[in-house]
Amino acid sequence: MAESVWKRRLKETYDHYAKERDQVVKDDWKLAERNMFLSRLQRENRAKLLEIGAGTGRDSMFFEENGLLVTATDLSGEMVLLCREKGLSAEQMDASDLQFPDGHFDGVWTINCLLHVPKRDLPGVLAEVRRVLKPGGLFYFGVYGGMDFEGVWEADRYDPKRFFSFHTDAAIQETVRRFFTLESFRTIDYGNEILHFQAMVLRR
């Protein structure tokens, strides 16, 4: 699927389901990951945070309510509007072309966003994240994975069905190490028979 096609469909899907997704109750394990990363940032006095794939802005709100200076970004215009309704600084932006100066952020948070990036394009996105992070900055990168797959997920309940890229544990670690120091890699079983969650804390 051509890049322009998958991005257009992804925007369409998330625009359509934005308000529904704003009502979904977050899993406890996702809240725990969020708390863990906040603690890491606070211990190192890192206050300026970028969220990539902010969705409806609930994670960004959490970080902002806990004293961080947050910029939320998302590919979906409807998601960005919901972020702004919450009072967040939010921009519609492609992760492959982050419109920020070099070394602008102390930390970056992205959860279940970059699994929509084709494998051939992920290195370019990671290079952009590295560029906008300050030296020594922290990057939380969390995605579903544990298998080698790329394409439209036919079991997806959303319409249009979404494009996903899933990586094996070995493959995703090899990819991120090209751009960052991998400080921790953990897998979380969330009840799916074929996938697990891959949680990474990386340093610029």
TrEMBL record:
Membrane-crossing segments per the record: none
A molecular function GO annotation: S-adenosylmethionine-dependent methyltransferase activity
CDD domains: AdoMet_MTases (cd02440)
Residues in Methyltransferase type domain copies: 50-141
Matches recorded under InterPro entries: Methyltransf_11 (IPR013216), Methyltransf_Superfamily (IPR050508), SAM-dependent_MTases_sf (IPR029063)
Top-rank lineage group of the source organism: Bacteria
Pfam families, A to Z: Methyltransf_11
Name of this chain's protein: Methyltransferase type 11 domain-containing protein
Natural source organism: Ferroacidibacillus organovorans
